[in-house]
Design a protein that fits this description.
This protein has about 475 residues and is an alpha+beta fold. About 35% of the residues lie in helices and about 10% in strands. The protein folds into three domains: about 1-185, Lysozyme, CATH 1.10.530; about 205-275, SH3 type barrels; about 280-460, no CATH class. It has 14 helices and 13 strands. The chain has a six-stranded antiparallel β-sheet, with no helix packed on it. Helix 3 (about 40-50) packs across helix 7 (about 150-165) and helix 9 runs parallel beside helix 14.
Length: about 475
């Protein structure tokens, strides 16, 4: 997604026009994911700092005193490129993430107070880092007689709750002094009720490269240990151990260029592939939950090579037919079996509204008797996908008594045929729900979900 949005920014940001909030939030999500920061925290900061505005109405950069742009970066010490802070929105967001990590580091290394074990994947543990982002001042102490009406960190919390529906619980204010800032050594317990930051972690065997707006990165002899090697940006490596939480960071042991080995923070590593599937050919899947399945299906010839896979985009009838046709042909070739065919009556259809690149695949699925209706450009819903595959799935008396409405509580508006198809796909292990007891039948099926369906069909029927 980030690569698509960069094309937008090349024509809009430099012209002094603010992208939509949706576009900005997508970029913040991307940056936060790369940097190992809870995305909701970074979005809350952007909302409070600039209301998601990087430019003024006259096209000039949004500058308040010495603070610049969307993330209101104070660059008086010259740590960042001033011009890029003003005119490069992505750079400004990266600088905001970098500055927040600097404030987090202050908590981790006892320059300011800290919360609990400083696990960055707990939203409540970011309290003092948020305080410091706005300045480590007495006015942000909620129990001080000199406090602002709304402290900075509370403003961020309130925005996150009201606009993103996520409640972040406050620390116990009784630990805070009234007449001064809290001491550097103060450690406030993490609240009993806390929320996950949804940080994405890497695995042993992942290919990674150093990434960020900093010029130098460092390998250490142990997690939070001594520096042993300096690295440049885009240094390639393989993860050999980790993650291990130490001093507020998740650490990975990385083997670099077949000559160096050491530990480095998750925040400066970008996954590019893994030892099982090699370098990911799709630029938008390194952080996706289905990345390995997508690469496996690419290796089997079910999905085609492209710059982007768009895994979260809705899949169309045409695309689903392509995936399914390739999957069935793959099974027939590997199993050395005859063509998988249903006994359904095939009605005449002229295919004039089918795109040429998809025509052979749609015809194949049609001729197998799997298409009762052809709407090639229409997006496929989750309740419709099971209807397209139910006739190739096996029946089993073993699951006859299962009440699918007890498994999924949101099938009440489906007709009998749709419910039967969902049940058949579910008991065959081909499709699952999206949430606890939720199938989400009216939501569109994503390209990633469609790929998983094909993977499950292959796993079930390959001999």
């Amino acid at each position: 997604m980030i690569f698509i949005l960069l094309l937008i920014f090349n024509t809009t940001v430099y012209a002094g026009v603010n992208p939509s909030r949706e576009e900005i939030e997508a970029i913040i999500d991307e940056v936060a994911t790369k940097r190992g920061i809870p995305a909701i925290i970074l979005k809350g900061i952007a909302r409070v700092e600039s209301v998601f505005k990087h430019f003024n109405s006259d096209g000039s950069p949004k500058i308040c005193g010495t603070s610049i742009g969307l993330m209101q970066i104070n660059n008086v010490n010259g740590g960042y490129d001033n011009y890029r802070l003003k005119y490069d929105l992505l750079y400004n967001i990266e600088a905001g993430a970098d500055m927040l990590l600097n404030k987090w580091s202050m908590s981790s290394y006892k320059q300011v107070s800290s919360v609990g074990n400083m696990d960055p994947n707990i939203l409540e543990n970011w309290y003092f880092a948020l305080w410091a982002y706005n300045g480590w001042s007495q006015s942000n102490n909620p129990v001080s007689p000199y406090a602002k009406k709304y402290t900075y960190q509370q403003l961020v919390y309130d925005v996150i709750e009201k606009e993103y529906g996520k409640k972040i619980n406050n620390i116990d204010f009784s630990y805070l002094p009234r007449e001064s800032k809290p001491s550097r050594s103060l450690v406030v317990p993490t609240p009993n009720n806390y929320s996950s930051g949804n940080i994405i972690f890497y695995e042993k065997g992942d290919y990674v490269r150093t990434d960020g707006i900093r010029k130098a990165y460092y390998l250490r002899d142990a997690p939070a240990g001594n520096y042993i090697y300096q690295l440049n940006v885009n240094q390639l490596g393989i993860i050999t151990e980790g993650p291990l939480l130490k001093n507020g960071y998740y650490w990975y042991k990385v083997y670099i260029d077949e000559t160096k080995e050491g530990w480095i923070e998750r925040n400066w590593l970008l996954r590019t592939g893994d030892t099982q599937y090699g370098r990911y050919i799709f630029e938008d899947i390194p952080f996706h939950w289905a990345r390995k399945i997508i690469m496996d299906m690419y290796g089997r010839g079910i999905v085609s090579k492209a710059a982007l896979y768009n895994p979260n985009n809705p899949v169309t009838y045409e695309e689903f037919c392509i995936f399914l046709s390739r999957t069935l042909n793959y099974l027939e070739n590997v199993n050395k079996q005859s063509k998988i065919q249903t006994s359904n009556k095939i009605l005449y259809y002229d295919f004039t509204n089918v795109d040429l690149w998809a025509l052979d695949f749609v015809k194949d699925i049609y001729e197998r008797g799997l298409l009762k209706d052809i709407q090639p450009l229409q997006r496929l819903s989750r309740k419709t996908a099971p209807l397209l595959i139910e006739d190739i799935l096996t029946d089993s008396d073993k699951y006859l008594d299962i009440d699918i409405n007890m498994v999924f509580s949101d099938l009440g508006n489906l007709n009998e045929e749709e419910i039967s198809a969902v049940k058949k796909a579910y008991v065959n292990g081909i499709i699952s729900g999206k949430d606890i007891k939720a199938f989400c039948p009216d939501e569109y099926l994503t390209r990633a979900e469609a790929t998983v369906i094909m993977s499950n069909i292959i796993k079930k029927y390959i001999r």
